Amino acid sequence: MVESTFSENRHLFSLPSLKKHALGGSFLILVVLFIGFLFYTTLSWMWDDQRLPLSKIVLQGDLTYVSASDVQHAFSQLEHIGTFMSQDIDVLQDSLEALPWVSVVSIRKQWPDTIKVFLTEHQAAAIWNGNMLLNENGDVFNGDIGQLEGDRVKLYGPQDSSQEVIAKWRQITPLINSVGLSVTSLVLNERRAWQIILDNGIRLELGKDSLDERVERFISLYNELGDKANRVSYIDLRYDTGAAVGWFPEQELEESTDD
After folding, report:
1. 124-247, superfamily in CATH?
2. pTM: predicted TM-score of the whole model, two decimal places
């Protein structure tokens, strides 16, 4: 009899506890559902094309050849520019990297409607094969040669030889400068032979081998020529020793002097 009473009492006291836990669990589920609903509606609002459109561009960088209108035009070529949340930065970056003169692009979004663009331009060290440009690293890039401020050396060479040619130009330049001259053009032809045009019009044929020694030989010869140097058309240094000198005709020199 005592055992039966104890069992009934335990059953009676457990009912309110179950109800309390059930209510607590239901409340927790409602809270989670409500938070989920708020999160979903907020994301839906933010990803809506009619909400938070990217409408402002801030352009930064020490720029000479790239303008704000160039950036705007590049973006206008995209099929669609999304919202602050939906727009892929990589797409914007790719569109600007295709612009002439652009070397490095950094883009970030600023809440709620702004794109911040930082650009670094290529620094043109030389004109390459007549219609392209080389930066300081010898990389070929597309830029309007007519926009260049100041003169640039003209370098020529086969495909994929730009870094070799610009390195050779930098190596030779101090030697040529030592006699008061400068290189206006350096050519590496398809046969891998080198040719230099100097600012006084003299053409140097250097061939394929021993370039440093042949340039040094030219410097010695040039110093010996003295005033006769203005009559020289070309100097062929493609010999183990010595050089062949080509002279302008006297008549041609007189006509040039009269002009």
Report:
1. Cell division protein FtsQ/DivIB (3.40.50.11690)
2. 0.74
